[in-house]
Design a protein that fits this description.
The chain has 16 helices and 15 strands. It is α/β, with parallel strands linked by helices. It has three domains: 81 residues, Winged helix-like DNA-binding domain superfamily/Winged helix DNA-binding domain (Arc Repressor Mutant, subunit A), CATH 1.10.10.10; 131 residues, ATPase, nucleotide binding domain (Nucleotidyltransferase, domain 5, 2-Layer Sandwich); 174 residues, ATPase, nucleotide binding domain (Nucleotidyltransferase, domain 5), CATH 3.30.420.40. The chain has a five-stranded mixed beta sheet, with helices on both faces. The protein is globular. The two termini are 17 Å apart. Bound molecules: zinc ion. The site of zinc ion (ZN) has 6 residues, from loops. GO terms for molecular function: kinase activity. Keywords: Kinase, Transferase.
């Protein structure tokens, strides 16, 4: 069974039964990929085909080494049923995590496990046509050096910043060269399926799927790096909004900070007072006031390219100004989060990104702000947790997006 390009396979197939079997096999593969190991009777319910047919197709898939037996499932009375799962090496996905200044990539197997080292490259995101070529070259290099046969890497997931409309396959902020959609251009270069998503949404989905294993239904992911990314999961589904841009939390006009302009060009945005960018701006002021502080010493030689992580490191080492910067930023961020809680009543808020590394130095002021600004009844039921996936969250996000959508259009079109 060829999983690389179902469309080509389908065009070649002639008989109606043959096509139907192929689509049904694809449905089984999709369920096993998305939900993990399962029994024949559960697969039968999920896919909506009869048990004898499922058994027949599973036998085929076992012979083709796409599916393997993975022990026994829970007994429903009587003998424990066989558990089926995808063979880990039946296909692979390339995950790419693009940020404003660099890219990361690694290959993952059908169990969503990383099978190569994470490679990184300096690759500024912009709208130059050759940036797409550079992304493709980097990806090709990662696949080639993995030793995995090229044709086994069947899709590419890309998590990236910007206003991303993942359905239309367009990023309205970056990589805007060419007449075709970004996804169409990437698919032409990669010669395989490509899925793109806004980074905060991809990361939230990864935390939901892989970090918390679908234990909560209504989840917000807040990722505080230079800006503030928000992903919204409502009833277990990523919420994208009408045009695909839901979650532009960073540019909520919440503050009266007229003197500070935001990266979006407006004033008074949450980002201008409560992001990594704000932390760095405040840290530069603090360094100018006290050149002997821990913060000043850690920043020596890096004043121009000061990163939020250095301020977090200084706070962890006990620098009072760094601690109070994080406290101020946390209070403002908490005020923003209070609005999200009032609006969306989430069960769980996952906090990630460079600023979340500050741990209690940022969660304590956030909690304090929530005590002040949100209603107790709503707040009490919302837990706040730190990201479980850490620095790999962007790559896992790219994989999570592929995991959700792969084979979907082929299945839908039949
Ligand atoms: Zn803004």
């Amino acid at each position: 069974m060829n999983l690389i390009d179902p469309k080509i396979v389908l065009e070649k197939k002639e008989g109606v039964v043959e096509i139907k079997n192929y689509i049904n096999k694809l449905k089984i593969v999709k369920e096993l990929y998305t939900l993990g190991n399962n029994t024949a009777s559960n697969i039968c319910q999920l896919v909506g085909i009869s048990l004898p047919t499922v058994n027949l197709l599973l036998t085929d898939l076992l012979e083709e080494n796409i599916v393997v037996k993975e022990g026994r499932g829970q007994s429903q009375g009587g003998r424990k049923p066989d558990l089926y799962g995808l063979a880990p090496d039946s296909f692979f996905i390339l995950g790419m995590d693009l940020s404003r200044y660099g890219a990361k990539a690694a290959v993952y197997n059908t169990k969503n496990e990383k099978v190569t080292k994470v490679k990184t490259v300096k690759l500024p995101l912009n709208n130059e046509p050759d940036t797409l070529d550079r992304i493709h070259e980097f990806a090709r290099d990662v696949i080639q050096s993995s030793g995995i046969p090229d044709e086994k890497v069947i899709a590419v997931g890309i998590s990236m910043p910007g206003l991303v409309d993942s359905v239309a396959g367009v990023n309205h902020t970056y990589l805007k060269s060419g007449k075709k959609s970004l996804t169409a251009q990437l698919e032409a270069k990669f010669e395989r399926k490509v899925f793109i998503e806004n980074d905060a949404r991809a990361k939230t989905l990864a935390e939901f799927k892989f970090g918390n294993k679908n234990t909560h239904k209504n989840v917000l992911g807040i990722f505080v790096d230079w800006g503030i990314g928000l992903g919204i999961i409502i009833d277990e589904k990523l919420y994208r909004g009408y045009s695909g841009f839901a979650g532009e939390f960073s540019h909520s006009p919440l503050f009266d900070a007229k003197e500070i302009s935001c990266s979006c060009g407006k004033r008074g945005c949450l980002e201008s007072v409560a992001s990594g960018g704000a932390v760095v701006r405040l840290a530069k002021e603090a360094i100018a006031l006290d050149k002997d502080s821990i913060l000043a010493r850690l920043s020596e030689g890096k004043e121009e390219n000061l990163e939020p992580a250095i301020v977090v490191e200084a706070a962890m080492a006990g620098d009072q100004r760094a601690i109070s910067i994080l406290s101020d930023v946390g209070l403002d961020l908490g005020r923003g989060i209070a609005i999200l809680i009032q609006l969306l009543n989430p069960e769980l808020i996952i906090l990630g990104g460079a600023i979340a590394e500050a741990n209690q130095y940022i969660t304590t002021p956030i909690q304090q702000a929530l005590n002040i600004y949100s209603m107790a009844k709503l707040r009490e039921k919302t837990s706040i947790e730190l990201s479980k996936l850490g620095k790999e969250v962007g790559l896992r996000g790219a994989i999570a997006i592929v995991n959700e959508h792969i084979f979907e259009d082929t299945i839908q079109s039949h």
